[in-house]
Amino acid sequence: MAGNLVGIARAYELGARLEELPTVSVSVERGVEGDARGRKNGRQVTVLFREGWEDACRDLGAELPWVTRRANVLLANVDWPREAGGLLRIGEVELQITMETRPCHLMDRAHDGLRAALRPEWRGGVCCVVRRGGEIKLGDRAEYVAR
Predict the structure, then answer these.
(1) 73-76 and 31-32 as β-strands: parallel, antiparallel, unpaired?
(2) Is residue 59 classed as helix, strand or coil in its secondary structure?
(3) 2-145 CATH, one of 2.30.42.10, 2.40.33.20, 3.30.160.20, 1.10.10.10
């Protein structure tokens, strides 16, 4: 199912506040331009799926901004994967899914119970490596292609 890109964010330093952007360059070498995690092996870009995020927030009875999850990209109306190996295409960019983004203790620091709410069905999103770089912008078409 094709959807679209509804959020882009980066943090210049690990643990720093995320900056939301309307457009950004994504490269094989650096991941999201200017993001501190872009060179991390197997985890260059983190992707969150709006529907999974909304399910987690509904379970908590809270409305939280998506950047609370500390992901780089938020996709809407895309079937979110529950296994590694598939591709996410966002505009001209291709991301290969390497693993689930496992919720860590920082989630409970942001909101009590968030870590547990993100655990079912890969609600916390996925980690990816960049297979084809390019520019992405809010509104770009996005799709998941299973392996």
Answers:
(1) unpaired
(2) helix
(3) 2.40.33.20
List the alpha helices (DSSP H) in the chain.
50-60, 105-110, 114-118
| Residue 99 φ/ψ, nearest 5 degrees | -175, 170
Q: Give CA separation, 84 vs 62, 87, 88, in Å.
A: 29, 9, 11
Q: What is the pLDDT of residues 18-48, one digit of tens each?
A: 999 999 999 999 999 999 988 777 889 999 9
Could you give the CA distance from residue 90 to residue 65 in angstroms, rounded to a whole number? 21
Looking at 43-113, list the stretches that DSSP marks H as alpha helix, in order from N- to C-terminal side: 50-60, 105-110
